[in-house]
Structures are given as C-alpha cells and as structure tokens.
Write a structure and sequence with these properties.
It contains five helices and 14 strands. By secondary structure, the chain is mostly beta strands. The protein has a 14-stranded antiparallel barrel. The termini are far apart.
C-alpha cells in the first residue's frame, strides 16, 4: 500500500521542463538546441520571434501538432525505480536517500493547432511541464500546466526587415516547492512530512515582440517574450503537498540570434534570457536535408538536425546535446530527437518527439 501511494504521489507530478524558456517548445526547435530566433518560419515564431511570421511558406495555411518528451534512462524512471526497490527504507541516511540524491527528471506533453496566412497567425495550445530534482532529502518539484490562445502578426517594413507582435491569453496552473521525507514507520506513513503550501491558478495577457533582418541566406533576429504582461486574475489554494510556492507572472525573456539557410543546410545560434543571469542560455543548431524522394519530391524526404545548449536554469548549470531526424511523408511530419541533458552534473537521457500535419 505504501509503495502504491508513493508512486501515485510522484506520478501526479508527471504532467516540459524545458531548457528553452518559451511557453510552448516544439520538437523541431529543441532538435536545433533551441536556436530559433533568427530562423523562425512557422507558428513557433509567435513564441520565439513574431517577425518570422512574415517569412512563412505561402503554400501552407496551418499545422496540427502533438508533442511529447520522456526520460527513458535516469530522471523520472530512476526516481520511481529507487522508491520501488527500497520500500520501507526512508529513514535519514538510508540507502534510498543516498540513491535519490541529485536525481532530476523532466516530462512534457503538449499539442496545438495553428492557422497562418499573409503574416497573420492564430494558435491554440495546451501543455503540461514538470521538473523534479531530489536533493537534501527533499523532492523539489516545479509543475506548470498551461493553455493559451494567441494571435501574431508580422510585416516587412522594408525589403530586408520585418517586425512582428504576438498577443496571448494564457491560463497557468503552477506549483513549485518540495516534498520532504523525514521518516516512515513500518508500512504506514507515520512521520512523513508533506509541509504546507499553495497551488496557484492565474490568467495572464501577454505580448511578444520581435524583429528580423534577412538578406540572401543570412538572417539576424531579436525578440522579447512577455515584453508586456497583465495578470487579470489569480487564485491561491492551500495545499498539503508542497511548500515555498513561488509562481509568478512571467518575466520578460530577451533573445538575440543569427542564422544561415540555403534551403539544404541551416545554421543557427542564439542567446536567451540575457536579462536574468540565473537563467541565461546559449544555443547552437544545425540542420541538413539528406534527401527527398527521387523525381517526386512532394512524396517525402529526410532531414537531420543537431543542437547544443549550455548555460543556467534556476541557477543550476545545464547543458543539452541533441541529435534528431525529421521524416516527411506527403503532408505529415515526424520529428524525433535523442537528448542528453545535464543538470548540475546529473545526466538524463530523453526521447523528444512530435507529430505534425500541415495543411
């Protein structure tokens, strides 16, 4: 019974922690290490650089997308396995606490639909993100469930320069804090300290702004996510699960980037969160079209991607290396990335994927 309850508690936290600070992160973008500010050319431009909406392929009018990220080696699986293998051993200095020390995990699920035409884009998205790290005999959890409606508009104000803006209505359920295990007695939960805290629901109105300069195959981009925000309502509910709730209205995220794209090879580099030293990240990415179906290109093809990220997240040293492929069959796309993620010397292997239909 104790084992089942503990597993249920942790499973409830499996709702993306992402090194990428955008409210919605796609597998395509993560396959490039999050370097997207200067090369954004789909609906993700609404989050990374709205000016990129001016350069969306005129032959497409929208996307239907499903996303997911799962750890499959350490991370969440290791935390779960450690608890299952050490049932009844939660005392201070126990083998379980030693085994869990430093373990981290992250999970993400999301999906959305978009429509775009002539520099104008509409989107509706929902996502669930979790980041967990076990240290000092406590499981620190950062959970964020969000849904948002957004509209973006971009226009070339001269031959080489575009400006863009995104307006967003966001609903966020956020929980940040810790679950502290003090001691378990026999098969009961006597002695476990959950503490007390708050669960927050909020509704925000926000604005992203961006600019992009393109000349030939080269581009420069800059954007500010949540340049302006207005918290319309907030609801706080007491909880017996977590302590130290720190959820708040999103802070502005400044990005700058450079890119090169000749239609077959793409190179990109970004700096993000420049105004927050505890969360500043650096991104580089490369994409190479491997082949299209010979003589009938519209049938499909394969594209390879790789990316690297380094910097800080919540003042933890982080790094990410990702390798991936995109397979296209007619109007359907499948993106798969293998990700090696390191947080404060704790490494997690993940599988990151998305399925997308273009129309």
């Amino acid at each position: 019974m104790k084992k089942i309850l503990i597993i249920s508690i942790l499973a409830s936290f499996s709702l993306v922690f992402s090194f990428n600070t955008a409210q919605y992160a796609s597998a395509k973008v993560m396959g490039l290490g999050g370097a997207y500010t200067a090369i954004a050319n789909d609906e993700m431009a609404m989050f990374y650089n709205p000016a990129g909406l001016a350069y969306i392929d005129s032959g497409m009018i929208g996307h239907l997308t499903a996303e997911g990220t799962f750890s499959y080696e350490d991370g969440f699986t290791a935390i779960m396995d450690s608890i299952k293998n050490n049932t009844g051993n939660f005392t201070a200095g126990s083998a379980l606490l030693a085994e869990l020390e430093g373990k981290s995990a992250s999970m993400f699920y999301g999906g959305g639909i978009s429509y775009f035409t002539g520099g104008l884009a509409f989107g509706a998205y929902a996502s669930a993100k979790t980041f967990m790290k076990y240290e000092n005999e406590a499981l620190n959890a950062n959970i964020n469930n969000s849904s948002l409606l957004c509209v973006g508009y971009a226009r070339e104000i001269m031959d080489d320069v575009a400006l863009g803006i995104t307006l967003k209505a966001t609903r966020v359920e956020a929980l940040k804090g810790s679950i502290a295990y003090t001691e378990l007695v026999s098969s009961n939960f006597d002695g476990m300290n959950f503490g007390s805290g708050e669960f927050e629901k909020s509704y925000n109105l926000g604005t992203n702004i961006g600019a992009m300069y393109k000349t030939g195959n080269f581009s420069l981009g800059t954007s500010i996510e949540d340049a302006f925000t207005l918290e319309t309502t907030k609801e706080l509910t007491s909880s017996s699960i977590v302590t130290n709730n720190t959820a708040e209205t999103p802070k502005p995220v400044v990005r700058v980037g450079v890119g090169y794209n000749n239609g077959y090879t793409l190179l990109a580099a970004d700096m993000a969160n420049l105004t927050d030293a505890n969360n500043t990240t650096y991104h580089v990415g490369i994409q190479q079209k491997l082949f299209d179906v010979p003589f009938i290109e519209w049938l499909g093809g394969i594209t390879a991607r790789a990316g690297y990220l380094t910097g800080k997240k919540d003042n933890y040293d982080i790094s990410l290396v990702t390798y991936g492929l995109q397979a296209r069959v007619l109007i359907a796309y499948l993106n798969l990335n293998v990700v090696s993620k390191t947080i404060a010397d704790d490494q997690t292997q993940e599988l990151n994927f998305s399925g997308q239909i273009s129309f």
